[in-house]
Request: fold
Amino acid sequence: MLFSRFFAPTSKNDSADAKIASHRLMLRTGMISQTAAGIYCWLPLAVRVIEKITKIICEEQDKIGAQRVNFTTIQPANLWLESGRYEAYGKEMLRIKDRKDGDFLYSPTNEEQATDVFRKYVKSYKELPIIFYQIHWKFRDEIRPRFGVMRGREFLMKDGYSFDLDFESAKLTYETVFKSYIRIFRRLELTPIPVQAESGAIGGNMSHEFQILAETGESTLYYDRKLLSASDEELLTTFAVTSEKYNSDTITISEKDLMISKGIEVGHIFYFGTKYSKAMNAFVLNEKGKEIYPEMGSYGIGVSRLVAAIIEASHDPRGIIWPEAVAPFDVTILNLHLKNSRCCDVAFEIYKALSSKKEVLYDDRNITVGEKLVDADLIGIPWQIIVGSTKIEGGVVELKNRKTGKVVEMSPNKVIERFLN
Ligand code: 5CA
Reply:
């Protein structure tokens, strides 16, 4: 991709109302553009990151047998009248009338719809367990949308819904999804802290939140120091709670092992038994022909929030430092001297060669050297290949690692080899 043709409207100044690093940096790099309170347009850099995250989520969910679907953003109110949540959900739900005066809503979550699809088609215990998931937009009319996409009103969620025949099987599904989530967050180069949580508006009695440590997080976490080095299996049972559940009288770990930190909730999973299957009369027949209400769970990841959480976890005063797994491009080439034909030839040659295997952003814009270097650090692509007139006379270009800041000189051929092999 030629930067001169790429839509990334970067800016030199911070927006006054951006209070946390991710919000500030997403605006400055031109990843997002606000259209109303808590409602954002996602521009090309951001869409590339979302697609990388989506791919990782789908790979890990497909591995555990979850099946991707697309439920709808607009739902008829009667599904929610059946479950009893239409009134209970309150003002966070955006209610819509169609032209025939019918009541609809913009999905804040899709338990009812998943249950409705299930009851229409699944009739036998033999078809269970089933896990559906989707990656789709949600709307919640939050009282205080803030911190950019961190707490938006319109946001992208990965939401999953499971159906099992009995409690044992439902618990196994819950634990399988739990472990899949840990793998997803680790692949995103994050350190997830799973905490036992309240289930709130979703209901139910077994629930974990997945938190990412960050000083700007809205949750307060109390957890056992061991958690930071626990295996995926141990994570299920190691002590960790949010402030809503914390009670110093009942705590079982010693004071010296107790850690208290701020966190960002990037995922939340729930087991809620037959709450929706009973309310919506979704049942299967068991081997004796008896009607059984399946045991259900639901599983969310805040995909758009994750983009911001990754930036909170990985930035410095100069800008974003993308983990390689989700970076919008693998490598950027900075041609510092467009008027020098040797620089142009070498930069273009490297660009052509690398583009066969890598996602490359070639900065061919007619701006100052300083602006180019500042933008490259701001946007945070993991590797920068810097082509400048003095170095090129000596037959070398510079390869800079955004994270460490380390620069090494090498010949253009060497740098091509470095990325193609
Ligand atoms: N139905 C369940 C799971 S599918 C559910 O809705 N869970 S949730 O309410 O906890 O949301 C799942 C995840 O979406 C949260 O963990 C959070 O990361 C993200 N999320 C929730 N509200 C917002 C919001 N207003 N802005 C951005 N992300 C949000």
Q: What stands out?
A: The domain at 12-316 is CATH 3.30.930.10 (BirA Bifunctional Protein; domain 2). The chain has a mean pLDDT of 95.
